[in-house]
Amino acid sequence: MATTVVQTERLTLRTWAPTDIDAFAVLARDPRVTRYINGGRAATDEQIGSFLERQIVTAARAGWCRWALQLREPAAGEPVGVVGFAGPGCTFAPEIEFGWWLHPDLWSRGLATEAARAGINHCFAVIGFARLISMVHPENAASLAVARKVGMRRETEVEHNGVTLVRHVLDNPLGDLPPDPRYRRDCSGMPHGSSLGTAHPDPDAG
Ligand SMILES: CC(C)(COP(=O)(O)OP(=O)(O)OC[C@H]1O[C@@H](n2cnc3c(N)ncnc32)[C@H](O)[C@@H]1OP(=O)(O)O)[C@@H](O)C(=O)NCCC(=O)NCCS
After folding, report:
1. DSSP E strand boundaries for 38-152
2. Is 151 left (phi over 0), alpha (psi -120 to 50) or beta?
3. DSSP summary character for residue 105
4. Ligand 1 atom 24, closest CA
5. Strand pairing partners for 66?
6. What is the pLDDT of residues 2-38, one digit of tens each?
7. CA 33 to CA 103: how far, in whole Å?
8. Is ligand 1 within 6 A of the CB of residue 136?
9. CB 45 within 8 A of CB 98
């Protein structure tokens, strides 16, 4: 069963349930969504199923995942996006990568920024991560704008699996919080899988 993590004015960030698979598949198969993620390819059925399963397992083990994003109105609607941490393969472990994606019908209303701000606040004040990074394709103007608006520092360009990505960084302004047993602050023990959901295609992954 899904659990609400945070609510904003217009959005709910929540964990995933297996019944979300059809709504998630709509997002993951939309070429506008995958243009700069998953190597620009629509997700396969296998990737869709394993992404969802990984998020459910990661949330149970770590207290975080790439959460489902749902509009508050209409109530009890389907997920319309994804926002959250690390996830696929924990590719940049031990660093925690923060990502966001949204159904194209909802773009340019400030929703991804609203979700990202809520996720960042939760991750710094509640989970206690020391630092977040975001890897953004240099041509992904909307995503670069979200990173800028939430205060991430554009650090450097890195090459990952033959793709140039812009690394953004945000340090926890609250410093080192005492550990909270409900959360893990690293990717150890998390399920690894395909690169779906990240800006960095991984040809070796399923
Ligand atoms: C990235 C994404 C989540 C942004 O969602 P969103 O809800 O439209 O984002 P917001 O409305 O909060 O902010 C987007 C900003 O980008 C700007 N923007 C959008 N398209 C742009 C473009 N082509 N050129 C320049 N700026 C652009 C918007 O004007 C807005 O900035 P503003 O508020 O200063 O005007 C959405 O485009 C998406 O899901 N893309 C596909 C998945 C993806 O690539 N995720 C990122 C992986 S790193």
Report:
1. 66-71, 81-85, 98-102, 131-136
2. left
3. G
4. 141
5. 84
6. 999 999 999 999 999 999 999 999 999 999 999 998 7
7. 7
8. yes
9. no
For residues 160 and 156, give the distance between their C-alpha atoms in angstroms, rounded to a whole number. Answer: 13
Count CB-CB contacts under 10 A for residue 192: 13
CB within 8 A of 67, min separation 6: which ones? 5, 13, 14, 15, 16, 55, 59, 82, 83, 84, 119
| Residue of 8, 146, 168 best suited for mutating to test ligand 1, as the one with most atoms within 8 Å of CB | 146
Both tokens of 148, joined, read 């800028």
Place of tokens 């700069």: 36
HSE of 55, CA atoms in CB hemisphere, 13 A: 28
Give per-residue pLDDT as tens, 98-154.
999 999 999 999 999 999 999 999 999 999 999 999 999 999 999 999 999 999 999
Per the structure block, which two tokens stand in for 9?
């004015």
Nearest CA to ligand 1 atom 44: 36
CA distances from 99 to 47, 67, 109, 187 (A): 17, 10, 18, 15
Supply φ then ψ for residue 100, to 5 degrees.
-150, 140
Please give the domain boundaries of the chain with CATH numbers for all domains.
4-171 (3.40.630.30)
Residue 194 amino acid letter: S
How far apart CA 7 and CA 119 sit, in angstroms, is 10
User: Which residue type is seen at 50?
Assistant: S
Sequence-distant (6+) residues with CB within 8 A of 189 are 61
